[in-house]
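Work Package 3 (structural annotation) set out to generate three-dimensional models for the target panel prioritized at the project kickoff. During this period the team completed the workflow that converts sequence records into discrete structure tokens, so that structures can be stored uniformly alongside our sequence database. As a representative example, we reproduce one entry of 439 residues exactly as it appears in the project archive.
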Amino acid sequence: MSTVNSRGAYEGAPSVRMLGRTLHRHRRLRIGLMQLAYVVAGVVLGLVVPRIPVGFTVPRSESTQMLFAVAAVLLTFLAIAFSLVFLVVQFGSTTYTPRLNLFYTSARIWHSFAFITGVLVFAFTAAYSETFVPASGSTSSDEMSGLLPILTITLLIGAIVVYRNLQMSAFGSVQLGSVLAQVTERGRQVLEGVYADEPPQDAGAASVARALPDRRRDVAWTRRPGIIQDIDVPRIIAAARSADAAIEIVVPIGEMVQPRATIAVVHGSADPSLDAVVLQAIRTGVERTFEQDPTLAFRVLVDIALRALSPAINDPTTAVQALDCEESLMRLLVGRDLDVGEITGPHGRTRVLLALPSWEDYVALAVDEIVEAGADNPRIRRRLERLLRDLIALAPARRSDPLRARLDELASRWPTTEPAAASSLTRGQTRTSDSALGG
């Protein structure tokens, strides 16, 4: 692994190239364009396939009936598929959290819709094109290429397989274990992309902030209010290097930005063209997404736990499962270098500063609200205690203080919980106690 300094890394280092890939705006086709591509493919196949000779022909009337029957079946598939999406989204929003957008933002879902739509368009196009143009090599307009029924049956089988996969995905999206696993995996992907797989520095190797140029200029947000969803970091790096400046993004991903609010600060350059580059590199939307947001997985897991602990639901087992997933993400973070918010050039010049959460921020997000909500539940107290003790055992010295502070808070709230400095419980005893009570 390349050298990573205490506050960031050189922009050519592997860790920063990984960061750039994660914080690069994903160049995906929009859903509408992707569906249009499937429709165009269906039209082209419907016009071309009836004209391709394969050595035998089939009666046109029977083929037309088959194509219309296939189209009718696919219309039913589409109606059921849309109903599945509606039910799953509604179930997830009301049962787990409104921020759970895994199912309807999945590329698999929209590719499934587009594929079925494309086959439907193919069936209609082929049915009407064969009526007016006889198959190539046919001596009669009542006959057509035998390739058409073969391809139609193949595409129909493919549509059934796609629908089956969509159905199984929908069933999995209403199961708690599957939802928690998906949220955890999405969170893990973002965290592994943003933070270098390197041990954090010791407490004695405290970083010294580099001096930024004295000249600074605020960049105001000029668009509609929205939540920052992704930032095209490589584009900002290139603009900062070209203008010999440092660009500081002051609003973190996942936060709301309001019109005329400061979104960034440009250090060391008076070039007003940098403002437009910064604004174009930042995309906002109406809700948070998993693309680049390193805290969204924690937010979703905490929301699920809080809803489970509410008096109306009173389901501490679900909250314990959410804490299990939180611990897996915290275990990943505890051994990562979180000081990657500053990206420097080859000569040590700061180019981009990102507003990324600190270790204290992650601990507060993962624990504090659940501590408040689970005050009267012994299973939640024991699970929180075990989570904190396990992380203290893994964490370097400079990261254990926030964990010990919260463990001491648990002890002060509930005297039956031992403080971090005077623990006589072994981890095995704690786990045995949890298992005996189903926690």
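Residues 298 and 429 are 28 Å apart (CA to CA).
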